[in-house]
UniProtKB/TrEMBL annotation:
Region (Disordered) residue spans: 78-108
Gene: Mief2
InterPro entries, per the entry: Mab-21_HhH/H2TH-like, MAB21L/cGLR, MID49/MID51, MID51-like_C
Species this protein is from: Corythaeola cristata
Descriptive protein name: MID49 protein
Keyword match Membrane: yes
GO CC terms of this entry: mitochondrial outer membrane
Domain Mab-21-like HhH/H2TH-like: 359-445
Keyword Transmembrane helix listed: yes
Keyword entries, A-Z: Membrane, Mitochondrion, Mitochondrion outer membrane, Transmembrane, Transmembrane helix
Length: 463
């Protein structure tokens, strides 16, 4: 009898709760529509099942029944959590009819069921979805378009200043040193070629040194005192038939070789002491001053909107070689560094044009990453370009959709080259582009890139 009474009371409670739920769902269709009401029905059913189990007697001595009840409770909670929030519709004050009838008053002595609080339907809480996890491909493209993009106005102003300074320097050299056959100055560097510039802050100024091929010849790097195939010497020939003075460049000869150091020292004195940079800077609306302490030929330019560094490089072009007056540190002063920069840029753009590839995108991202990372800055520029050129010979898919795969593959290739301590030049396999790195630098770079193979995002954090 007692059991019957309990069951009956439970049915009455169910009937009362059912009435509330029916009314709730009926009004939900008015407010939320069919799809919203269906979502609310699922959540309401789950809550009702929780209430039923909370008010039903437990089999204290049956562990299996308790375990079953616990599992069902977790399933219902998961159902509630998985139920999407209903979309926000019309506000409550815009409706003329009430959504819920008043709550039934409590009866003295009646067992209190667990109280369920419903959020007001007129102001549903919309939970913002968690941020979408970007793929490496999306991160690379975002990194390229936002962080590495040089403002067009800033780049245009920097190039305009560099060209004006180039014209002023050309005019000075022709008036000050008319006997020296310098060629026409021209600009170079990543800002013009678009392969590595992070900001419009650096430009190369190339000064051609025009030599008479009948009076000068090139000595291969393997035959020089440093035994380095990347450096060359320029020898004065036939001195017995064409003695000193026959070439205007004979004044820079040291031991029958055209000295890059001697030429740089002369140009450095001109930049520091002979050119009226304050007047030129005033004309261009900027402040220009040469860097006195640097061994390189550098100018620092400060403008209201941009700060620019210009490096001057005397350059000799002979026998299909491009040689820069950039000798290695040390006592050797007659060496000229072979530059492949022009060939690198040309080859990368040629390959991209042939298959609509993303090599330039990949190279620019890698240059930006390495240039801004304290442990990797010495890898930017030439080494990265040559790794991509080597990889292009074996990996043909360089479409933009494969950018993430190629990016990770370049990291793997770099780690392999660092393990060997050798990165052969794409244009001359005798040249090791890692030859001037210290062992500690190689170890540090290798460790960082090895970690980045499994976590490329480590390199994409903005510095």
């Amino acid at each position: 009898m007692a059991e019957f009474t309990r069951q009956r009371g439970k049915r009455q409670e169910d009937s009362g709760l059912g009435s509330v739920l029916d009314l709730l769902l009926a009004n939900a269709r008015l407010v939320l529509g069919v799809s919203g009401a269906a979502v609310l029905a699922i959540a309401t059913l789950a809550v009702k099942r929780l209430i039923d189990r909370a008010t039903s007697p437990r089999d204290e001595g049956d562990p299996k029944a308790e375990q079953k009840t616990l599992e069902e409770s977790w399933q219902d909670l998961a159902l509630i959590k998985a139920t999407p929030k209903p979309p926000k519709k019309q506000r409550r004050e815009d409706l003329s009819e009430p959504l819920l009838s008043p709550a039934r008053p409590a009866v003295p002595g009646e067992a209190h069921a667990p109280r369920v609080c419903f959020a007001p339907l007129e102001t549903p809480q919309v939970v913002s979805s968690p941020p979408r996890c970007l793929t490496l491909q999306e991160k690379l493209l975002s990194h390229y378009s936002s962080w590495l993009a040089v403002p067009e106005k800033q780049a245009s102003l920097a190039l305009q200043l560099a060209r004006s300074i180039c014209a002023q320097l050309q005019k000075f050299l022709r008036s000050k040193c008319p006997e020296l056959p310098f060629g026409s100055l021209f600009l170079s560097g990543p800002l013009l070629d678009g392969l590595g510039a992070l900001a419009a802050d650096h430009v190369h100024l190339m000064l051609p040194v025009v030599l008479d091929a009948t009076l000068w010849s090139l000595i291969p790097g393997e035959d020089t005192v440093v035994r380095n195939p990347q450096y060359w010497m320029i020898k004065r020939t036939d001195l017995e038939y064409f003695p000193r003075g026959c070439s205007p460049w004979d004044r820079f000869i040291v031991g029958q070789y055209l000295s890059s150091n001697a030429l740089n020292e002369t140009l450095h004195k001109m930049l520091v002491a002979s050119i009226n940079w304050p007047a030129i800077g005033s004309l261009l609306g900027s402040v220009i001053h040469p860097v006195v302490a640097s061994q390189d030929l550098k100018l620092e330019v400060k403008h209201d909107q941009v700060e620019l560094s210009i490096t001057l490089f005397p350059v000799v072009e002979m026998e299909d070689k491009v040689l820069l007056a950039a000798p290695p540190e040390g006592l050797v002063e007659n060496l000229w560094l072979e530059s492949f920069y022009r060939a690198e840029v040309s080859k990368v753009k040629e390959l991209d044009a042939g298959d609509s590839g993303a090599r330039q995108h990949c190279l620019r991202i890698l240059n930006g990453v390495c240039k801004s990372h304290p442990a990797l800055h010495k890898l930017s520029g030439t080494p990265l370009t040559h790794v991509i050129l080597h990889l292009s010979a074996t990996s043909s898919d360089w479409a933009e959709e494969s950018l993430a795969d190629r990016f990770q593959q370049v990291l793997e290739e770099l780690v392999g080259y660092l393990e060997k301590g050798v990165l052969p030049s794409y244009f001359n396999h005798k040249i090791n582009l890692f030859c001037e790195l210290l062992e500690e630098e190689i170890d540090e770079m290798g460790f960082m890139l090895y970690r980045a193979i499994s976590e490329p995002e480590l390199l994409l954090k903005e510095k």
